[in-house]
């Protein structure tokens, strides 16, 4: 009589095959949704959607995706991500206007500066967890805010204005709206693809294991603090990529992006769209930016409306818009 635990038992092979089929189905779904998203982004200006509005959506979508890498897949809630998008904006604006960097170099320099800032602040913040981690990041962000207010090269309350868009690689004039749109689109797609690859890499799988059960991950030999610090630096650098692009787009770097309110906005975008999903932050950013754009005539009441929508989403869509849609379709989005 053959034992149930016999090596010849087909159960492990069947289980492995089922997992493989599920992963293939998930990859097909992600490719389909990505193609749909890409078609919308490419086609939007062609059907009359204001290009600057779409570019703003893409900048904030990349910012939200970078934040989601830390919160959704790393389980770390930061209240200080404004320091990365804001400081990167100043770095890109200053390097383009004063040093004469071309736009691609200015954006790359901004991402490197934000990554370096993330490496330093991460060494301090990662030592704590939960609300203590969130409060440390908020305190560090406030320090960056007041530095930006007082530093001579930031322009104080006026910021850095009239930032030249320049010529991409010294050839393509980004003052043309469609050229600028293509530039922002390529950066967004590249950043999104990099985040997707990180999440589905062995590093991303370990990061999610730490989020789910940190003591068990440590018992398996993983250095949890090292992985969380790397995720923090990656999130900071990608946030800086969004910030540098935004500064070149609007030809402005100001205190608005480094203010604590920006940190709150990216949390809102991530939760409304769907924390821990791939496409959720993109949808959340589109919803929030659309509200800000079309409800601007309400003035200060925009914040009240945003708060109300946030409360409704938390109560009715606990997984976020994309999270609930994926749950309904039984697909991972």
If you compute it from the alpha carbons, what radius of gyration comes out, rounded to the nearest whole angstrom?
Answer: 21 Å
**What's the tally of helices?**
13
Report on the biggest sheet: 2 strands, antiparallel
Q: Estimate the mean pLDDT confidence.
A: 88
Q: In percent terms, what proportion of residues is strand?
A: under 5%
By secondary-structure content and strand pairing, the structural class works out as mainly alpha
Q: What is the element string, with H for helices and E for strands?
A: HHHHHEEEHHHHEHHHH
Summarize the structure.
This protein is mainly α.
Detailed description of the structure:
This protein has helices spanning 11-43, 51-71, 82-97, 103-125, 130-150, 177-199, 202-212, 214-219, 224-250, 260-273, 280-294, 301-316, 320-329; strands at residues 160-161, 167-168, 172-173, 252-253. Strand 2 and strand 3 form a beta hairpin. It has a two-stranded antiparallel ribbon with strand order 1-4. The N and C termini lie far apart (46 Å). It is mainly alpha-helical and 333 residues long.
Please tag this protein with its features.
two-stranded antiparallel sheet; two-stranded antiparallel ribbon; 13 helices; 4 strands; 71% helix; globular; disordered N terminus
């Amino acid at each position: 009589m053959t034992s149930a635990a016999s090596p010849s038992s087909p159960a492990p092979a069947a289980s492995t095959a089922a997992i493989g089929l599920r992963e293939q189905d998930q990859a097909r779904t992600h490719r389909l949704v990505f193609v749909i998203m890409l078609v919308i982004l490419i086609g939007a200006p062609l059907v009359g959607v204001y290009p600057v509005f779409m570019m703003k959506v893409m900048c904030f979508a990349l910012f939200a995706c970078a934040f989601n890498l830390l919160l959704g897949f790393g389980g770390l809630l930061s209240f200080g991500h404004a320091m990365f998008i804001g400081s990167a904006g100043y770095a890109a604006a200053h390097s383009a206007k004063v040093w004469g960097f071309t736009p691609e170099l200015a954006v790359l320099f901004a991402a490197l500066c934000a990554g370096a800032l993330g490496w330093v602040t991460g060494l301090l913040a990662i030592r704590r967890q939960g609300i203590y981690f969130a409060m440390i990041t908020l305190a560090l962000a406030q320090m960056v805010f007041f530095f930006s207010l007082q530093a001579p090269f930031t322009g104080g309350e006026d910021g850095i204005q009239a930032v030249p868009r320049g010529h991409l690689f010294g050839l393509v004039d980004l003052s043309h709206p469609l050229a600028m749109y293509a530039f922002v689109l390529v950066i967004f797609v590249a950043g999104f693809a990099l985040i997707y690859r990180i999440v589905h890499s062995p590093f991303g799988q370990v990061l999610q294991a730490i989020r789910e059960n940190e003591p068990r991950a440590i018992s398996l030999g993983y250095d949890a603090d090292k992985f969380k610090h790397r995720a923090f630096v990656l999130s900071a650098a990608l946030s800086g990529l969004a910030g540098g692009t935004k500064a070149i787009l609007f030809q402005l770097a100001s205190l608005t992006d480094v203010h604590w309110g920006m940190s709150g906005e990216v949390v809102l975008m991530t939760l409304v769209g769907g924390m821990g999903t791939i496409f959720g932050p993109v949808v959340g950013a589109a919803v929030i930016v659309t509200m800000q754009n079309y409800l601007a005539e309400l003035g200060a009441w925009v914040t009240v409306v945003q708060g109300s929508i946030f409360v409704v989403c938390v109560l009715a869509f606990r997984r976020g818009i994309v999270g609930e849609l994926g749950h309904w379709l039984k697909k991972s989005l």
